Amino acid sequence: RIWVLSRSAPQLSAAMAAGAATPAAAMLASASGNGDARGQVLLILRAAASADAQMRVPAHRQLQELEAQPGFASLLLEAYADANADPQGRLLAVLMCKNVVDRCWQPRTAGQGMDDEERRYTKECVLKLVTLAVTGALPYVVELTLVLRRICRFDFPKQWDELAHFILGELRRLRGTGGFDEGGLAVIVVLHHVLKEQSSKRLMAARRDFQQIGQVMLEPLGGVWALFSERLRDMLGGNGSGSAGLSPAAGDDRTWKLSRYLDGCFQLLLCQGFAKLHETPNGPELLALVKDKVSLLLGLLRTHPQLVVQCPFFAKNVKSVLKWWACLLHSHPLAFARSGLSSVLGSCVEVLRHFATPPGAQASHEEQQFRLALLKSSLQTLTHAFNQVAFRRGPQPGHQGVAVEAAKLCHGQLAEFLNGTGVDFLCELGAATALQLPAEELRDWLADPEDQLLGPGAGTDLRQAGESFVRSLGQDSLEEPLVKHLAQRMQEELARPPTAADSYELVARRDAFLSLLSLCQPQLKPHLAFDQLLAFSVPVAALAAHASTQAPCVLLPVRLCLVVRSWCADIPTHALAPLLQLMQTFLQQGCPKAVRLATLGPLRELLGRFSDHEAWAQAQGPLIDGCLVLLNDLKAPEVQWRCLNLVHLFLCEEAESGRHEVTEHSLQRLLALWRQPDAGEQLICLALLDVLRALVLMSCRSRQPRLPLSPALLACCLGVVSDCYSQHRPSEASGPRSGHGANSAALLADASIAAGSLGDQGSSSATVFDSGVVLFLAVLRAVDASQAAPLVGFFPQLLVYYSQQSSGALHDGALDLLLEYCALYVELAPDAEPLQPHYGSLLRLCHGSLQRTEKDRNCEVSFGLLQVLLAHAASPEALASVRELLAPLLVIFATSYNPRGPPSTFRYPLHPLLQVFCTWHARHPQDFLQHFSSVAAGSLGSAALLVAGCRVTRPIVARAALLAAALALVEAAAAGGGTGDVGAVWRELLSATSELLVTAQRQGPPALLMQTLQALKSSLATKLPMPTRSSAELQACQLPRTLRPALRDDGTADEAAVVRWYVGLLVESLRRLGSRSATDLQALVGGASEQVRSALQAAGL
What we know:
Elements: H1 9-21, H2 24-29, H3 35-48, H4 53-67, H5 72-81, H6 87-104, H7 116-133, H8 141-155, H9 161-177, H10 182-199, H11 204-236, H12 253-272, H13 283-303, H14 307-310, H15 312-331, H16 341-355, H17 365-387, H18 389-393, H19 402-421, H20 423-435, H21 439-447, H22 461-472, H23 479-495, H24 504-519, H25 521-524, H26 530-536, H27 538-546, H28 555-566, H29 576-586, H30 593-609, H31 616-631, H32 637-657, H33 664-674, H34 682-697, H35 711-726, H36 747-756, H37 766-782, H38 789-792, H39 794-803, H40 814-828, H41 839-851, H42 857-871, H43 876-896, H44 910-923, H45 925-934, H46 938-950, H47 956-976, H48 982-1001, H49 1005-1018, H50 1028-1037, H51 1055-1076, H52 1078-1087, H53 1090-1098
Helix pairs in contact: 1-3, 3-4, 3-5, 3-6, 5-6, 5-7, 6-8, 7-8, 8-10, 9-10, 9-11, 10-12, 11-12, 11-13, 12-15, 13-15, 15-17, 16-17, 16-19, 16-20, 17-22, 20-22, 24-28, 28-30, 29-30, 29-31, 30-32, 31-32, 32-34, 33-35, 34-35, 34-37, 35-36, 35-37, 36-39, 37-40, 39-41, 40-42, 41-42, 41-43, ...
């Protein structure tokens, strides 16, 4: 609250300055009996509530300092009790004391709370003040009670016996004197707050404490409650159901205020103060008295409805009593045997019948809320009764003693109630009360259907209570009459199909029946085939195409969508095709917006259950188009996200086998949504990125036949990616994503502008940026070389951006982007001439990643970049710059690689490093032999390490390239006359060759493995096109240029041709060996496997 200061600002400022000069500890040290200290605190409190920030901020700072000092709570209580202080200051003091107790009584940080002595003294002061307040000697009783309630949260009842004795004494006094005056009301209000606080504790120990409180307080509180109820009945002249005028006391709201708090205390104590009320002495009898009080209030409500407006606490009393009446039935059902369960439920039915019709437009908001509260409580009471197993079936095995007799009585009383009322009547009454919509709610919903996606009234307390009530009617013994009633209603609806000209009352009743079909699906499933339900829905579905946007009958197709959603788990497979046709009809542009929105829910459920059904092949394309058209009409971010998410799911499924190509108009709409003036919700941005990535996935280069990336989609994606980069770094706040003008999809301009402003605009979420990077990576993998011109201009600026960051600061996917760019450059120019100027920047990035200790994705991709740079090093200078990184890696490999240990123990990812060595040998063989011969292991030792690495490498191309490199090193060792067992290395090499031949001769596994990996990637949350271009380039780098035709565009290779190439190298090497020593050749070949000998013979050896 903003309080009006009673002193002038200059006076208060001077007082504040004096207070600021006094240290907090010194102020509190002299607080006891010191009026100056209390006065200073009151001035600080008033300043803290000032509208002037210059006074308020320093005051808040001082209060924080004072709060940390011992004795501050006591000083606030003294200030509150000071009769000479101004009323505003006293109120602020007691409110501040409540906050201090809340924060400091049991603080989470040690050493910042009250000690035991201060807590004891504070409780003593509060109790004395409450004693004075109930006599009328102190103001602000409710605020003081809130302080007491905060202390009760921590210390009552076990550590505050004095409070319990005070309450018991006051209750005995009230019972003895019968003085239900303002003091008596204050006592009951204090008790009500204490009990409410205790009921809010959820620990089992606190519940047991409450049950001990119930044993102690039942007799005194029950006596006071019974005495007041008797007096109230006398005021009303008997049972209160007559039509005569009320006495002045009965029309006084203070009477009803006391009644409301007394009833609340007593019912709360009965509900939570006992474990089993039916086993408590006089428990059922007390419950019967409560029933009489409920009947008294309901009778008075029928005869004097004006009391709801004239006496607000009368309305609160009725609402509270009915709410706790339902809670009592839920907590202590067997205690209702003496109260007459049949009459209890009958009174609830009467309330429902009386208030079933909504009030007119002239009713006030309070009257409408009063009606809704009564309906909700009555429905909950009936629901709890029907959900009780003992009520429906009688005594249960766990019942003993009085519980058996109580269960028998309640079972008979429920049967009596149902025989007199009927399940069909209850079902219709619940539907009419809670499921039928008021006309004004329907009009509001039709004006803005995005506000309630599940239909009008879906989230209201009354509807939820009505749905729970209908479900309770489906319990075992009640199921048969419920199903018969619904079958009869269905026949009636079939006899009179709905039309667009139906009145609102008829539409509302049919809408409620459709809700029943949804809620009672578990009960109807054994009796109603979905085909029958689908046939029943045909007239309802026809309304969607003919009804106007504001027609009430629009509600019926919307509710039908909810029925389909609730039945989704039990829809037969053969019914999916006609159901999808129905959903397509609902999603057409000519249908009302509300119907199209409602279609999203069942479509999402159907896609989750029937994702692999063939019916989607024809339906997914029109459904995707329908969702994108619907997106044009949506305004709410949540609804936009739901629509985009469904489109994304459809596209991911379509990407498996379909060729959906979105229209340019839809792409423009997606880009406009991305760049909307408010910069969009983050969820919308993420959903848009998912949709675009799924569209790009259609153009994956591994698919056959492949759908090329359309120019419009490429323009849209690059516009979004440009925005992500231009707004990434949060160094300066930037405006909305207005971006680069109306023609921002001009790709080259966008890329240049984005690169030029990298990090200069910013405030985009890192999550959105990461998703934008993933989209960029997808585009690079899917784009054709003929479309790459707009992308080429972005590469140099991207390198500059990444070069300015440390290796640890590179975002996920940064080096993947650069690798795809390098592969694209090579495809554009096989000699990679445009890549040569960027060697320095790329090598520095690789060096930074390799310097880190983590074997992460960036480290792995760094080796891929090294492969490409090494393979296309066209000048001695370029090769020398790459060699600076390779030489240390070779030393580490030769000295620390343990062939007998697992690959994970090596410092770097082993497989990418071995592929770099293969590239070194394939493209620069003399340089390779020179450096491998110079390491400590020598040529022969290096060859042995490469052969050992071959055994833990799976791809055929990499294994063949490794063996070729090892073969060259063996020959170099033999030619150089080095030391070592050359024969042993030859035997290991031929053994590895045998394993290679066996793997290559297997039919199909490589292709099958590729398909399996692709399917696995498609099942992940982040779906990307296969990196076919970069994969093909990395494989090509490991082989001589003459083998380039053996590599396919989809990233796979002609493995047989690669193996033949290697076997040819092996044959030539063995021939050279035979020319030197025929004996050695015969020994080697004779010891080789049958597969090796056959391959060598076939190659001409």
